[in-house]
Amino acid sequence: MKSHVAFLPSPGMGHMIPLFQLAKKLTLQHGFRVSFIVITTGASAAQNQFFHSAAAISPHLSIINLPAADVSGVISEEMRVVTQIAVIARESLKPLKPILAELKPSSLVVDIFTTDAIDTCTDLRIPVYSFFTASTALLTLSLYLPTLDREVEGEYVDLPAPVEIPGCRNMPTADLLDQVKDRTNDEYKWYLLHVSRLPYTAGILVNAWDDLDQQRIKALTENPFFKNLPTPPIYPVGPLIKDDEILTEKDATILAWLDSQPRESVLFVCLGSGGTLSSRQLIELAAGLELSRQRFLLVARPPTDASGAGAYFSVGSGGGEDADGLSVYFPDGFLDRTRGVGLVVPAWAPQMAVLRHRSTGGFLSHCGWNSTLESLVCGVPMIAWPLYAEQRMNATMLVEEVGVAVKVVADAEAEVIGREEIGRVVRAVMEGEEGKVIRRRAGELKENALKASENGGGLSRFVDICHLDI
């Protein structure tokens, strides 16, 4: 009899893709039967397209769409992203119990914002595992957060020193997750609620591998603080990244342009599926790329001055039919002056295909964890440009610990990162000595990631546990 595991990701492609990659691997490589339960409320165009193509992967992998919930009375535009995710998840999971009772999975894998399922699974006697889709740096902070909440008065950003997480590097308050920087906001309360439930799971899967972040994985498994929480067993199952993409005619045009460029000469500029820049910042970015005199592939979408996560719920919805439609947002004549040296792509590009391409020599990234892992697996050095959520702590880790990135440095008094700084850091990565050092390190991490994937690591242990749960 096949082991049957159900998955329940939060809304958002950054949550769904890594969970789906694990589901796919369990089905295709380990003989599991998988039920992948999808929250459809407010689904983006990218999500709908993704699962439309995913349904045919294997007869043993079933996509189960939860009925869309009416959230019109509980969601408002003023709510921050995490509050919206948490509310959508809670409303969408109301019919979950009869669905799980009928499916009868041997275990359920949730992520950080679907922990409401723990109570349901307790009633049904189904073990629950958490797949923590972000970095181990955020996982250690998240497990430590309930203690921090009890022991610290006032705002964490006002602490006179970095946060001391047991067994880990100290975390500067400037790098803290956005969601914990205002304890009076509902976003903080939702996040605290969900991370407080992590110790009640049967295990925590993390999208990393031992050699990538050995110190924190060791702290999670050996440090007295984490052992006494108690922290459930930790399974480093990474790197799990999107391993294939359906290429469109537009994508083929992008790759053909890359084919015509010299090896490792193009900087790929993409700030994630949900990331957006302000009007002024987009102008400075374009001007900085031009100033650098380096080749570039820029994925751009219309700017928004409201939030760095402005496209989180609308990813895949377009934003201009062609680059000329975006010209109004760039410096005058930018597209004409950079034609041939640069390529501007509206809204979306096949990221893995670009990162794997021989012409790609650098990646200006928001440092979301999925993009980070994709860059590491492809051996591409990075320019760290964090926008929101936990991206600042990821950027610091990549620069100071892993050694595969340089970070843009903002003027403390400026509201945007200036074109001179952008030009400087692009040249440093693409042609400078600093770039050569991090390029070598990126190549080493690529080999290391390949070995971790081949060896199985924590994934093999998780597979063994699942077989025992039958």
UniProtKB/TrEMBL annotation:
Keywords: Glycosyltransferase, Transferase. InterPro entries: UDP_glucos_trans (IPR002213), UDP_glycos_trans_CS (IPR035595). CDD domains: GT1_Gtf-like. The keyword Ribonucleoprotein does not apply. Signal peptide: none annotated. Its EC number is 2.4.1.-. One of its GO terms (molecular function) is UDP-glucosyltransferase activity. This is Glycosyltransferase. It comes from Erythranthe guttata. The lineage of its organism: Eukaryota, Viridiplantae, Streptophyta, Embryophyta, Tracheophyta.
